[in-house]
Amino acid sequence: MIPIRDELPTRKFPFITVILIAINIIIFLFEILQGQGLEPFFRYGGLVPATLWGKGELNTSFISPWLTLISSIFLHGNILHLGSNMLYLWIFGNNVEDFLGHFHYLIFYLISGIFAGLVHALLFPSSTIPTIGASGAIAGVMGGYLILFPGARVIVMLIFGFFVTFVRVKAVLVLGIWILLQVVSGLTSLGMSSRGGVAWFAHIGGFLLGVLWCKIVSNRYYRTHYW
């Protein structure tokens, strides 16, 4: 089940979401230019839990290990990684930005990413594998969307072998299935941090922060129901 778009209009142009997408694309193009230097680029710009806690090899770049909690949010491993993240950011980010306001949304996005990274680093403190990607921050946006617009309709693509169809489902179902998959995958990944792969608990941490954050603010601000 792959989300394609939602049917929830916005009142204001989501320029922060657009800027975030543009920054991620520009940085990815810069990554392509690194060639053989891409691996050290990821090691210095990505989040390495062992380095963050002072257990691994010292980071010799100009970037503080703690700043990698932010820099890692803007790095991606390949075009599929980038494309899927930016698709989810566009689908769910524009409406969350519309509700929170531009500056509030930016702070919310960055803190979601930072918290997601910390959750991963706390659970796998000895990992020396760089963690990169906007997934944790975007998971926060998705958690916020679940709270703010649970009844919004999302068009998803369903694939059954060679058969492809598109259906409209409620956001609560799409996002509920998504976070359930993250939890199941995260639990099965415990004890395998040395193998790399997806930082499932970063997704879970970001999502839970987004749920809590938007649950609090939704009780303080007027919310328009578009669906």
Automatic annotation (TrEMBL):
Compartments, record wording: Membrane
GO CC, one annotated term: membrane
Ranges for domain Peptidase S54 rhomboid: 66-218
Membrane topology term: Multi-pass membrane protein
Listed Gene3D superfamilies: Rhomboid-like
Pfam families: Rhomboid (PF01694)
Alphabetized UniProt keyword annotations: Hydrolase, Membrane, Protease, Transmembrane, Transmembrane helix
A GO BP annotation: proteolysis
An example molecular function term from Gene Ontology annotations: serine-type endopeptidase activity
Alphabetized InterPro entries for the sequence: Peptidase_S54_rhomboid_dom (IPR022764), Rhomboid-like_sf (IPR035952), Rhomboid_protease_S54 (IPR050925)
Ranges that cross the membrane: 12-33, 66-91, 103-123, 129-148, 155-180, 200-218
Keyword Membrane among UniProt keywords: yes
Enzyme Commission identifier(s): 3.4.21.105
Similarity annotation: Belongs to the peptidase S54 family.
Alphabetized PANTHER family for the sequence: PRESENILIN-ASSOCIATED RHOMBOID-LIKE PROTEIN, MITOCHONDRIAL, RHOMBOID PROTEASE
Protein name: Rhomboid protease GluP
